[in-house]
Amino acid sequence: MARRRIIAGNWKMNKTPSEAKELVALLAPLVKNDDVDVVYCVPAIDIVPVAEAVAGTNVMVGAENMYIEDKGAFTGEISPDMLVDAGVKFVIIGHSERREYFKEDDTFLNKKVLKAFEKGLTPILCCGETLEQREAGVTLDWIRLQIKSDLQGVSAEQAASMVIAYEPIWAIGTGRTATSEQAEEVCKAIRELICEIYDEATAEAIRIQYGGSMNAGNAAELLSMPNIDGGLIGGASLKADFAQIVNA
Ligand code: PEP
Questions:
Q1: From the CA of 199, how far away is ligand 1's center (Å)?
Q2: What CATH number does the domain containing 84 carry?
Q3: Domain that holds residue 133
Q4: How many domains is the chain built from?
Q5: Best substitution site from 167, 174, 223, 238 to test ligand 1's pocket, by max atoms within 8 Å of Cβ?
Q6: Which ligand 1 atom lies nearest to the CA of residue 231?
Q7: 173-195: buried (b, 16+ CB within 10 Å) or exposed (e) per residue?
Q8: Which of 21, 71, 113, 133 is 20 to 30 A from 119, comparing alpha carbons?
Q9: What is the pTM (predicted TM-score) of this model?
């Protein structure tokens, strides 16, 4: 069975609640597309207004982050139950910005992945190499290490339902996109790894996105590759271009 495409916007730390409502209103008529899953991953404070604004449409809401505990004395953190109660379906885990600036390592990210599944959230698990790693020829080794570590204890059924986003760090927010061949090579290797860890059915079911300066101009070519099932979009998700990617 063909995998359903999934285009997710990662708004990062960019929109106030009022601005978020304006953006949703701008995009609403443009992103109507029954053939694609469309997700807005938004800052925590925007989740409630965005969930209200997209109610009854084809757009789903995602979170950019969550904590690994159910509740308690974790000042400033957001629990998975809070996300679920607010209508969140997806959660980005392991974005390179969280790995770098907030020192989230694979042991911690594995806990997040397991917690997300426990609470019924679908992880969008990010992985990707630095430019130095690519130039040193260790990209695939690095990606395998990240994914294997982050998926410890995840069942085949859970893995089949999740999303992995391949995001080369050198392409994020830089305007420098991986070529469709580079992106396909890694996404294919990720699918092969999923087959190795689980089985062919799981590898066929899991959805793999490319992320890194995807825009209205390059989306169609990237999305035409056999192992790229969608995109995780940063900068271009904050403007009407996002709709062009959805419709590509
Ligand atoms: C991202 O941060 O997930 C991302 C892909 O950003 P951009 O599209 O801006 O490169």
A1: 30
A2: 3.20.20.70
A3: 5-246
A4: 1
A5: 167
A6: 5
A7: eeeebbebebbbbbbebbbebbe
A8: 21
A9: 0.97
